[in-house]
Amino acid sequence: MSTIGIIGAGAIGSAFAKALAGKCLEAIIANSRGPESLADLARELGPSITPGTREQAAAQDIVLVAVNWSKLPTALAGLPDFGGRIVIDANNPIEAPLFKPAELHGRTSSEIFTDLVPGARVVKAFNHLPAHLLSDDPQAEGGRRVLFFAGDDAQAKAAVSGLIERLGFFGIDLGLLEDGGWLVQIPGGPLPVLNLVKFG
């Protein structure tokens, strides 16, 4: 099983960690304030989630990044080349309290994100639902809650799809990062916040 790192301990990062903990999957979680600030969260989530430094989280096989859009460059600055490892883009170019869309100059948010993680195989995922739906039981209404993902590398997408399945969700591949990433981008895409369930 691939090792997992999480950069960002806000709503989405914490919900993803909670989902992993619910399946006893191990991960290192990091934020901008240091491991000590995450001690209470780690105790709440259980022994499979370990607070660490940003560098420790970024060194894992699969790294989920969920940081306020305006803080992404700082959060990722200075990290070593990812060397072909998988980075999950769980970010959206909008943030509280104003929820004003960021200026992307005609690009998708995932294109901009990819520039910040040199050497990474980027997969867009875990960004289109409210945080509580990521950490709640994915067995919903008699089926499995749907999570979308998109990326340009087939092996990376297969690994993220496998993780989605292990967490109990039903993954749907939206294709390449440019097209699929836009479909789930908040704001602008048609698929965000749709709480879809796969039956059968």
TrEMBL record:
Residues 3-93 form the Pyrroline-5-carboxylate reductase catalytic N-terminal domain. This is NADP oxidoreductase. Transmembrane segments: none annotated. Signal peptide: none annotated. InterPro entries: NAD(P)-bd_dom_sf, P5C_Rdtase_cat_N, STEAP_metalloreductase. Keywords: Oxidoreductase. SUPFAM superfamilies: NAD(P)-binding Rossmann-fold domains. The keyword Membrane does not apply.
